[in-house]
Input
Amino acid sequence: MCEFARPGWVNGWTKLGCDSIESMRTAVPKLRSDLDADKALFANVYNYAFDFAKEEGQRSLSVETAAGMWELLLSGRWKYADAFLKFVNENVKRAVTKDTWKVLLEFSQLPSMADFDPYGAWPSLIDDFVEWFKVNGMQE
Output
């Protein structure tokens, strides 16, 4: 869980032209900027994070791990991230599947809750969040 193998770590930084801590520090703001500018790159990182964070031999993420990863990846990128994390931390008890993980990224790209199709094929976690959001009078 959440471990980089040394060869992958070294090769990744080498491809970026980094050979010191200082060059890594210099590269990080550009990497963050790239994530903000390129939705496909962000989607790749987001989807990679699921397998990176899950325990070896497990097919899903614990709620605690998923919430931590969502906070890291979605806070500041999705206007409903704080409300969603509050919902997850207070209400979700089941592990998070890869399907739910992936579909949440799609859901997070909706412009507003008004664009949510309740008849769509959303995982129950997302349906339950939308219902909770409305019942608790959350603001757009």
User: Anything to note?
Assistant: The chain has seven helices and no strands. Residues 78 and 109 are 8 Å apart (CA to CA).
